[in-house]
Amino acid sequence: MTATIMAIPRHAVTDTAAEAIHVQDLHKKFGALHVLKGVSLSARDGDVVAIIGGSGSGKSTLLRCINCLENPTSGVIRVNGEEIRLKPDGNGSTLPADRKQIERVRSRLGMVFQSFNLWTHMTLIENVIEVPVHVLGVKREMAIIEAEKLLARVGLLEKRHVYPAFLSGGQQQRGAIARALAVQPRVMLFDEPTSSLDPELIGEVLGVIGDLAREGRTMILVTHEMKFAREVATRVVFLHEGRVEEEGSPDAIFGSPKSERLQQFIRRVG
Amino acid sequence: MTDSFFLSLAQTSMFELLAPTPPGWGGNLVRGFINSIGIGVGAFALGLLIGIGGAFGKLYGGPVRRDLLQVYTTLIRAVPELVLILLIYFAVPDLINRLLDTLGYGRIDVSGPMAGIVALGFVQGAYATEVLRGAILAVPQGQIEAGRAFGMNPTMLMRRITMPAMLPFAIPGLANLWLVAFKGTALLAVVGFNELTLETRQAAGTTKAYFTFFMAAGVLYLLLTLISNVLIGRVEHWARRGRQPIAESR
């Protein structure tokens, strides 16, 4: 299958836009378990790629391979045109060959986790300024000004001196999005950002993510929220058993799914 | 009968015996107490340093480092502290001096306090390694993963995320270790170091006022424990910032 873009972009993603993320023939094994079996994926600047698929389809693993939270067994990963150099780890898998490179690449990818993972020993604003100040070398005063803007944007300015344990799940996840935005990410990576939220808190988080999508941020979004994916994605990738089963525009994927697996999946998650 | 018994125990001369200046022995006791605190703090600090290195080494080090640390923690925790103290005080300097002799250098003198700190610190380090290893393992993986995902290098990850996050889990164990370190200084009496227990024994032996002096020493040990508890409580409160208060989370 070619990696050409079939989507009709929702906003101005031109054909000439630079490729922000390029994944080619990615394999990932956990021991005997072959989770990713040759996945290719591409996101250009301004793309919002939604990765959908059943449980165990490898969608989270794919996302986590992009910033080497999981080391791919084999394959090519390029972030902003820069190929992540991998070396054999001696056990048939790979490791980042250059720790500095992977740290630099990671510092410009805004990761949002399923379980928020805000640092519990820091207040909300300390969480947001942590990476700018300590990894990116931004002056603390500047970082605070930026952080306050971001927290205001996700509706948490008045909670900035509160520790995460005292916030609701939805507030924590919005805070985690602010933390990711604070690194001025080239690409935002969302790993099932609403999956551990109570149903009534999902909306506030999707609202924030939707706003980011509409302003043209490059995002890769692993999600179970099909309606949301259809609304905000410029392209949808359906993973099944470690392979890209089908990809295309949201309308094509949800409106006229071609493969039987995708048809089944869409019927099931409705 | 009972009156005279208690009278003899109370020893009317108690205050004279414990006077800070000779012929009172109070000054000696306080000096011993201060020596004990000094050795205890030194041993605990050394143990903490070894423990931090040991815990991270055991968790993230290569196979060789892990095995060496396993040997260290097993051996040290297996051998009685008293044996280790005698070993470090007598055997190790002897070994070093023989080595220095053969190399043609002059002999070194191992001072009592230094041997005490090293011996107790080594023991502390083995226990601290395990306390801290357990505490690090108790940190939710997502905390560390978030640091990695945002490009923190291993040193920064340890300093900014892992260490502060594991502290609440480590403090009860470390508090135990501090009290053990402080009380462990009493063992240094066997090598003739003037810590509180030896000073007490000397005072008691000279005056035959055993009860008075050992009670006084007991009170001093207790006093330090009580002060320690207050300080540890404060540190723990600080380390647990950002967590639900213990009472409410029950």
From TrEMBL, chain A:
Protein's membrane topology: Peripheral membrane protein
Pfam families: ABC_tran
Annotated localization: Cell membrane
SUPFAM superfamilies: P-loop containing nucleoside triphosphate hydrolases
GO cellular component: plasma membrane
Main location: membrane
Record key words, sorted: ATP-binding, Cell membrane, Membrane, Nucleotide-binding, Transport
CDD domains: ABC_HisP_GlnQ
The ABC transporter domain, residue ranges: 21-266
Organism (species): Mesorhizobium australicum (strain HAMBI 3006 / LMG 24608 / WSM2073)
Protein family according to the UniProt entry: Belongs to the ABC transporter superfamily.
Top-level lineage group: Bacteria
A GO MF label: ATP hydrolysis activity
UniProt-recorded name of the protein: ABC-type histidine transport system, ATPase component
TrEMBL record, chain B:
MF terms in GO: transmembrane transporter activity
Main location: membrane
Residue span(s) of domain ABC transmembrane type-1: 33-232
Keywords: Cell inner membrane, Cell membrane, Membrane, Transmembrane, Transmembrane helix, Transport
Transmembrane stretches, start-end: 33-56, 68-90, 110-128, 166-190, 210-232
SUPFAM superfamilies linked: MetI-like
Domain of life: Bacteria
Bilayer topology: Multi-pass membrane protein
Parts forming coiled coils: none
UniProt family annotation: Belongs to the binding-protein-dependent transport system permease family. HisMQ subfamily.
Name of the molecule in the record: Amine acid ABC transporter, permease protein, 3-TM region, His/Glu/Gln/Arg/opine family
Organism of derivation: Mesorhizobium australicum (strain HAMBI 3006 / LMG 24608 / WSM2073)
